[in-house]
Inverse folding.
């Protein structure tokens, strides 16, 4: 699935060393299916040539408001009317100061001013030296631009082209891509805090062995990603998995079920939604051996005593916030057979309003899944699709259930 199919993006470049990242960004946007129209200021053309940007976008680049290629000679109107989004990356301090005052003495600022403000969002990716960034004038300008309806992104931190180090680096192309995709997603969870548990747990037997399970964590990571794109602030409590943290998501790494339990409980106070996708080991060895258990010559596996792990979801569902309908808990049920029966049993046993069932063997490690949504009244099948598509659907479903859930107190 391409994230930006049918989207037309005007990519504006104002002057700054970060123009070199705009080339990579242009490629990333087109790879995701967007068409990209590049518009550059004269200053930007000092840093990267229109030829490069034309080759990458596969379209002639516009620099001047006097460009005679447009039949009506109104490039600023034509380009802004076609756009689904205007993204200025890099947005220099000077360019933002200009926008703030509604000045329009070059094509890019003219186009930003002339855009239909309710239809074409403006996304600014600042890039500048750290002193320029922290200057009260820049901070004041950005605050006012936000009030005026622009989406002003943050900046990265680190070494700068001038040799100094600090805040002011433009976000990386991949981060900007994520911001663009996010901007187009409906903000159904705006202002909500979502907590997700994901992946397996690992219960140590000795320093070199343990028990775990086959969960890849992909569904939970996709849900964390989708919830963030839907406007939520997201905390992801992840068991041992080798997956990259979804952009914008706060991640807490854990290993055992006890670690996961402690991490989830520490986050419940401000969560509005808890989605438990983790495949938590039900049992752990009563004692973890401090040294590697050696193979005895008896041919028998040494007997071990086991202790049951806390049921994190069931405990969360019994927390004061959940009982007060301030926390909506969603469980997952990975089964090998009789999905509906087991999912319904789990719904009752865990006392949660929604259980999402799937067949473990079909989904472990895969990029797609098929789900069965089970609540008190119904069991609805969601056919096979990518985990991200299903995650977005599930996020929308949860968001739609929140208001009635709250009223049911
Ligand atoms: N869960 C949990 N803590 C546990 C066990 C399960 O939070 N100790 C959560 C899972 O994250 C999932 C749901 O409970 O959302 C169901 O997990 P599952 O392993 O399918 O169910 P169990 O309760 O372990 O039951 P069984 O092993 O009998 O299927």
């Amino acid at each position: 699935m391409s994230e930006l199919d049918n989207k037309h993006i005007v990519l504006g470049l104002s002057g700054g060393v970060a123009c070199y990242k705009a080339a990579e960004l242009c490629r990333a946007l087109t790879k995701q299916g967007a068409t990209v129209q590049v518009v550059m200021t004269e200053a930007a053309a000092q840093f990267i040539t229109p030829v490069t940007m034309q080759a990458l976008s596969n379209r002639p680049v516009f620099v001047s408001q006097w460009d005679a290629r447009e039949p009506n000679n109104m490039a600023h109107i034509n380009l802004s009317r076609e756009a689904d989004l205007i993204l200025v990356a890099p947005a220099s301090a000077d360019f933002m100061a200009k926008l703030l005052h509604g000045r329009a003495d070059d094509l890019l600022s003219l186009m930003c001013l002339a855009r239909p403000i309710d239809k074409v969002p403006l996304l600014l990716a600042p890039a500048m030296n750290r002193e320029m960034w922290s200057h009260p004038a820049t901070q004041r300008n950005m605050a006012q631009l936000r009030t005026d309806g622009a989406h002003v992104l943050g900046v990265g931190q680190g070494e700068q082209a001038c040799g100094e180090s600090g805040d002011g680096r433009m976000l990386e192309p991949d981060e900007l891509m994520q911001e663009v995709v996010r901007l187009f997603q409906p903000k159904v969870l705006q202002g909500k805090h979502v907590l997700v548990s994901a992946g397996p747990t690992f219960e140590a037997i000795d320093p070199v062995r343990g028990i775990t399970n086959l969960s890849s964590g992909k569904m939970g990571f996709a849900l964390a990603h989708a919830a963030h794109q839907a406007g939520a602030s997201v905390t992801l409590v992840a068991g041992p998995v080798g997956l990259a943290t979804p952009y914008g998501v706060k991640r807490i790494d854990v290993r055992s079920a006890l670690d996961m339990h402690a991490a989830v409980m520490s986050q419940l106070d401000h969560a509005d939604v808890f989605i438990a996708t983790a495949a938590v080991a039900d049992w752990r060895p009563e004692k973890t051996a401090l040294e590697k258990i050696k193979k005895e010559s008896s041919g028998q596996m040494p007997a071990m005593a086991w202790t049951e792990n806390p049921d994190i979801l069931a405990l969360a569902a019994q927390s004061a916030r959940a009982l007060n309908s301030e926390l909506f808990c969603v469980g997952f049920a990975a089964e090998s057979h009789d999905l509906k029966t087991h999912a319904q049993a789990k719904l009752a046993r865990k006392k949660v309003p929604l259980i999402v069932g799937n067949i473990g063997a079909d989904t472990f490690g895969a990029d797609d899944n098929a789900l069965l949504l089970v609540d008190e009244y119904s069991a609805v099948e969601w056919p096979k699709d990518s985990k991200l598509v299903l995650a977005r659907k599930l996020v929308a479903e949860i968001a739609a259930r929140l208001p009635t859930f709250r009223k049911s107190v």
